[in-house]
Write a structure and sequence with these properties.
Length: 218
């Protein structure tokens, strides 16, 4: 019986740098009067780049086997921000509720998405850069947003804060659950941009790179 199960979590050991941001495709449409309008081509998708440090031989072959198992872009990856696997304020051990009771999204007059979470601990903190993951479809489908501002849960355990990108509510159902612990999303490898260094006699030198792009499965 194999231990290889998909989606495969990223290999965080040996990571020297990580890029984890929404990738957007926007078109600008200037008018004769000088106004410029922006049109987005679809929902923003999360993009990830992992840069690896020197890896000892066992770790080098583990990374190589992980990449090989993806079969190019065929198999799914479960990706997350290594530095924000739990909310920043609570990384020192302060207690927090990892699974909010309910969520809702509104869009303000400036077209900024605001996410409201209930069921948090009183005084629980959301820091800039914290993540919220949405899970549905029997735990097989994911969406992800990142906090743009800090917030603190009130006495009833409710907090509201701006996020990016907006929750794609045409895909994410109202019954989706949320989590603040190892919040992530599904991705596929960008094969043409992934590159592993050659394994030497004692290590794989720094410079290996794994690139992936979100697959927002409806």
């Amino acid at each position: 019986m194999t231990s290889i199960i998909f989606p495969r979590p990223i290999i965080a050991g040996g990571v020297l740098s990580q890029g984890f941001d929404p990738a957007r495709v926007d078109y600008l449409s200037p008018e004769t009067g000088g106004r410029i309008y922006s049109v987005a081509a679809g929902s923003p998708l999360w993009s990830m780049t992992l840069g690896y440090n020197n890896l000892l031989i066992p770790d080098a072959y583990a990374l190589k086997a992980w990449v090989d198992s993806l079969d190019g872009a065929k198999q799914l990856i479960f990706a997350f921000d290594i530095d924000r696997q739990i909310p920043l304020y609570h990384q020192s051990g302060r207690p927090f509720a990892a699974s909010p009771a309910t969520w809702s999204q509104t869009i303000n007059d400036d077209d900024v998405p605001l996410l409201e979470l209930t069921g948090l601990l009183r005084g629980q903190v959301v820091s800039v850069g914290d993540y919220v993951s949405f899970v549905w479809g029997g735990g097989k489908k994911f969406a992800l947003v990142r906090a743009l501002e800090a917030a603190r849960a009130d006495a009833s355990g409710t907090a509201e804060f701006a996020v990016t990108p907006a929750v794609p509510t045409l895909i994410v159902p109202p019954e989706a659950t949320t989590t603040l612990r190892r919040a992530g999303c599904l991705m596929r490898q960008v094969t043409a941009e992934t590159k592993l260094m050659e394994i030497g006699t004692d290590c794989m030198p720094a410079g290996s790179k794994v690139v992936a792009l979100q697959d927002l499965i409806p």
